[in-house]
Batch of 2 targets.
Target 1
Amino acid sequence: MAMNRIAIIGGGPGGLMLARLLQRYGRSPMVFERDSHADERPQGGSLDLHSRTGQYAMRRAGLESRFAAAARPENQGDRLYDADGTLLFDRDEPTDDRPEIDRTALRKILLESLLPDTIRWGCRVAGITPDDDGFVLAGDGWTERFDVVIGADGAWSSVRPLLSDARPAYEGVTLVEFGFDVARHPAIDRLTGSGKMFAVGYNRAVITQRNGFGHIRGYVGLRLAEATAREWQASSPERLRQALRASFTGWAPMLREVIETGDVIDVRPLYALPVGHQWQSRAGLTLLGDAAHLMSPFSGEGVNLALADAVDLAEALTSNDGWTSVTLYEGAIFGRAATAAKGAAQGLNGAFSPEGVAPVLKHYRTRVTDA
Ligand SMILES: Cc1cc2nc3c(=O)[nH]c(=O)nc-3n(C[C@H](O)[C@H](O)[C@H](O)COP(=O)(O)OP(=O)(O)OC[C@H]3O[C@@H](n4cnc5c(N)ncnc54)[C@H](O)[C@@H]3O)c2cc1C
């Protein structure tokens, strides 16, 4: 089969990394991205890149010095409180090699590494139809043919239904995301420490995370029916605050400050594909990143896997073994994603449990002992 014309659906970290690597290998992929430009929507909070996956991909892409210039190794601290505001764990000088980087900064580095006109902005792919030689992509008023189509289009991938019947399922937990400037919110600044702060109580958590440029993100999470989460997505910030106040009655005032003073950014019900999601290989079509293995953020692996997938897929697509290499790529990502997805499900259930903070404290202490 021909593998010359390659379409990547989705300009998130995984799709952009794949485009960068393919260009380094002399190919000319085209990226279709539904956002109309790079700054159309907030990209989300800070991400830590792990040495064997995310950082490895940056090295393979020749972007390690750009990453080092934008990364914040000093922001890897961990704090854990209970719902009364008692500090149970505080590690401000971690030995992990997991520097943080703002999502917007990571996307900028990847975008600037691409040749001009690699990305078709404002092109949401709505249909993918097989023909004799490949696939025809269709969007609003356009169609275009490709030999190979890569689904790098995240949780609600338009490519995945051609390979698998699996759909993301709601995990029973919703996060309400808040934004803070440290200059205006000194109490949140003090609460957060140098990196991430978790406060955990009965089926609930308050999280803050230091971002670059004097920003902090907050996440207030709780177990919630999916229909209620949908209603919350349509609620005003004041109604959301009222609902959260009611759910966090009795929590320490310094933790409730997150609810009272933050700027509401988004309501994020958490979805995941089944742990161990796989598909039968189909020539010309494959997936990477969240499209292949969406999981909750509680393993901190999602973006790292997306970047590592891109490294392996770029090699497979440019090898001399045709689609066989891509089939091997798929086998490899099924295994490593299953391990991470299991960890993410355990992390989520540990953080939102009737046992409150105890399982999380145990996890933190084990991590320190294992380090
Ligand atoms: C609250 C939260 C916190 C997180 N924290 C972490 C963390 O700390 N560490 C970590 O490793 N991971 C984290 N993650 C997970 C991480 O964000 C994802 O795993 C990662 O973004 C996946 O990258 P991706 O490129 O596969 O998909 P995405 O980042 O979802 O990118 C997909 C792209 O495809 C585009 N798109 C979608 N549909 C179409 C279409 N039909 N046509 C064209 N374009 C389309 C989208 O606009 C988007 O740009 C977190 C996730 C959440 C929700």
Target 2
Amino acid sequence: MLGQNRTVNIVVGVTGGIAAYKTVHLVRLLTKAGHDVTVVPTEDALRFVGTPTWEALSRHPVTTSVHDDVARVRHVALGQGANLVIVAPATANSIAKITAGIADNLLGTTLLATEAPVLLAPAMHAEMWRNAATQANIATLTSRGVHLVGPADGELAGGDSGPGRMAEPEQILEAALALLAPRDLEGLRVVVSAGGTREPIDPVRFLGNRSSGRQGIALAADAAARGADVTVVAANISADVLADARHPSIRVLPVGTAAELADAMKEAARAADIVIMAAAVADYRPATVSEHKLTKEQGLLTRLDLVENEDVVAALAASRAEGRAPHGQTIVAFAAETSEDPVERRERARRKRERKGVDLLAVNLANADHGFEKRDNAVEIVGGGGAVVSSASGSKHAVARAILDAVRSMR
Ligand SMILES: Cc1cc2nc3c(=O)[nH]c(=O)nc-3n(C[C@H](O)[C@H](O)[C@H](O)COP(=O)(O)O)c2cc1C
């Protein structure tokens, strides 16, 4: 299983087509998702996008030759160590060579030496794609278990159009993640709350928090990739962040306030096997919401009376305790901590987990480098008796994988 303790090594082969510029974005997406990426271009590919770009993005040396780094037997080591090999774009020429098992460059030897899944993203002119030789090669490769993503029907280089356009980087990423993910959440219904609630004061102002929703969305995307059927209760998440949750098995329910989030979560949790409360929910809301904008002149903005919001996670745990949830439902809550003292943090986590009645508490270190609005996160996952069952830091996807692994092992 590809859990958080194992680095996922992905080789991205790049061959000589114009679509290589789109692979730049793919490499960024893969590294952003927390994967270790080594780029293996062909000589022709380097005429389209050069070595410095690949090295800077992947943070690994890049070569096309089997004669570099011979001490580490690089020509086979890359393929042996890979969890996945992607070739994007895959030219007609390289597809033919892969079919024939030709190994006259580093990409060829890597592909022969690997036992990992291979994903090709073909890109070429429509005539080249339709050509009987290419089609026969593709048929042979797929019969051997090689996976394909695309090509799409659309605009091609030089103004032509037809089948042969390389799949978009996001699609290739999705196909790659699907191949990598253990399908260990297949058949399970997961509900994730994500984002931050906003409690209106008047028509233009609200009490809010700095949660972007990235961690919750990463959890939703990773759970879907592992086979789960996912509902995201999304509180005020930007379209940009929500784009990562585009998956046929993810349903998004937008909400605004803590009360709306509570209603949506209670409804969704009634049929959920796993509930993850990653949203930052306001503890209090203004006692009254003004219909009209409050003005300075009226002196109405110097004081705000607050009332307490319902504790959603505690309500969900109580519901489960009363048997109003599927048998064996797992509930995960989050706690943001600013304390740098691990002993104090863990003691608070132990008490909070018990008070809320949840199975796991992901203690989120919110400081200058991690947490709210940041791309990276660091968590300690606290289970029964306050024991730290797992910890993870890095991208929010790496943290999501650790949380899902912890849920999986406790179920
Ligand atoms: C501007 C330009 C664009 C090209 N685009 C493609 C392409 O999209 N698909 C393809 O199969 N070949 C394309 N070719 C041809 C390949 O670059 C050529 O077949 C080359 O030998 C491929 O080598 P490689 O597979 O080792 O990278 C293109 C060539 C040029 C000059």
